[in-house]
Every structure is written in C-alpha cells, then in structure tokens.
TrEMBL record:
Organism: Coregonus suidteri
Name by which UniProt lists this protein: PA domain-containing protein
Organism domain of life: Eukaryota
One term under GO cellular component: membrane
InterPro entries the record matches: PA_dom_sf (IPR046450), PA_domain (IPR003137)
Gene Ontology molecular function, alphabetical: zinc ion binding
Statement: the UniProt record of this protein carries the keyword Signal: no
Length: 290
C-alpha cells in the first residue's frame, strides 16, 4: 500500500534538505583545505623604534600582523628604515621607477627598505632594494580595507621580504618624513595556514547559512502547525466517539435482577469482565446480543 502522509512526514525530509544545502559546501571546503594546506602562512612581528639624536629610543611601535613573502627567508631581520629618495623632486614610494635610489648613510651596516605595494611586481621592488644592499624589505599595502597577503617573488635570493598594513607603513613613513631615525626589527611569528580567504566564498557561506536557517525554521513551523492540527483533530474525533458511546449505552434497556432469575443461579456463566456474581436488585443493561 502507498505510504500515507502524516504530521511527521514534513519533518522527516528536513535532514535531506540540510544535506542538499550543506554537502556541496563541505566538498568545496575540503578541496579548499587541500589547496591551502600546501603552503604555510608565516606571520611577522614588526617593531619600529624611533631614535633621538643620541641614538636613544624615545618611541616604540609594534604590530604583529605582518606576513613573510612566499619566497622570503623566514628569519629575523633588523636595520634602519630608509624610503626611496626623491628623483628630480618626485618620490616614487613604490620603488618601480628605474631611477629609484636609496640614500643610505655612511657606515650603515643593516638597513630596511620601505616601499608601497603596486605599479610593479614584488620581485622588482625587492631586487631594486637588494641592489643597494638592503637587509630586508617592508612593503606596505595600498588598500586600507585589505589585510596583509603572502607575496610571491621567486628569484629574490636571501633578502627578507615582509608585507605590513597600509596604516602601519604610512605611520612609519610619516616618521621618516619628519627626519626621524627609525630602527625596525622583524621577528618570526606563528606559522599556520594561509590567511588568504576568498571573500566570495565567505559571502556564499554566510548566505547559505542564512538560507539554511530560514528553510529549517519554515519546516519546523510547518511541522508544529501540522502536529497541532493533527492533535486537535484526534481530540475532536475521540470526543465524538465518546459522546456516541454514551448515547448508545443510554439507549440500552435495563432491568432489575429479582429472585428466581437465572443470574442468581450459582451455576450461571457470568460474563468475562464481571468480578463478582449478580445480586438481588442489581440493575443490568440488556445488550443487543442478549
């Protein structure tokens, strides 16, 4: 026989709905994890110390959201920060101009180039600073709405390359523009999975979760409405049956057991539900089966 629909049937399809919505996303997540796990993300803590005229520290800035480049040595580095020098009155903050140069003070052992992201590849920027014997390169982002990313710059040798946020880079640049000496130290931070997150995937997950919650809530509401309707219908049916039974019982004829009736005979076969034998003056109903 075909299966009848009941109040519990809608709820039984809820796991199927959840599976259909969640399973494709789970598969995508597994695939994404396999891709991400191939490359580790290495964070960097960048400490900037402002020195006075005597070389004593007077201000310290610290940020731990830097990111080592993919092809950079994951080692500590330090040195005086130097930004590109003006060329005919024009400063190329990105270090992409072929004539970009750095004014390194004499007897400077280690120094760190400060460049802005954009206009040319990371490799070109790093090689430009390496040509002036930079110990490390700090590249600050060009979008305040984006976090640091893991740069790809194959073929840059042993030069340490770290990306920092736009706000931090401009803060250090502002100190340099005030002719202040800034000493930077780069320290290796935690290793973990890559931080690059596809924003489209994040939006997709959020929308899918919201849709899933709406569908689940709708099914639950429908289920409880059906259950309440089923319960009310069952109660009405039971009440109707009870009223009909009372009316049927009320229509049965009755009589009083008297002396000499067969019910008073000790050998009388009493009904199966009777616990005690009939007594005189008992009122009994006469069933249709007599």
């Amino acid at each position: 026989m075909p299966k009848r629909w009941t109040a519990a049937t809608p709820c039984s399809y809820l796991p199927v709905v959840l599976l259909v919505l969640v399973l494709p996303r789970c598969i995508l997540s597994i695939r994404a994890d396999k891709i991400i796990s191939k490359e580790d993300h290495v964070s960097a803590t960048v400490n900037a110390t402002v020195l006075d005229s005597k070389g004593n520290p007077k201000q310290i800035l610290t940020k731990d959201d830097g990111t080592y480049g993919q092809n950079s040595p994951k080692v500590d580095a330090k040195g005086i920060v130097i930004a590109p020098a003006p060329n005919h009155g024009v400063v190329d903050r990105q270090g992409c101009d072929p004539h970009t140069r750095f004014m390194v003070p004499p007897r400077t052992g280690h120094w760190v180039a400060l460049l802005q992201r954009g206009n040319c590849t990371f490799k070109e920027k790093i090689l430009k600073a390496s040509a002036f014997n930079a110990s490390a390169v700090l590249i600050y982002n060009n979008n305040s709405n984006e976090d640091t990313v893991k740069m790809g710059h194959e073929g840059t040798g042993d030069t340490v390359a770290v990306m920092i946020t736009e706000s931090y880079g401009k803060e250090i640049l502002g100190l340099l523009e005030r002719n202040l000496t800034v000493l930077v130290s780069v320290v290796v931070g935690q290793r973990g999975q890559a931080k690059n997150i596809n924003r489209g995937s994040l939006v997709f997950v959020s929308v899918s979760f919201i849709v899933l919650m709406i569908v689940s809530s709708a099914w639950l509401i429908f289920y409880f409405i059906q259950k309440i309707r089923f319960t009310n219908a069952r109660d009405r049916s039971q009440r109707r049956l009870g009223d009909a039974a009372k009316k049927a019982i009320g229509k049965l004829t009755t009589r009083t057991v008297k002396k000499g009736d067969k019910e008073t005979d000790p050998d009388f076969n009493h009904c199966a539900v009777c616990i005690e034998g009939y007594q005189l003056n008992d009122v009994v109903r006469i069933l249709p089966c007599k």
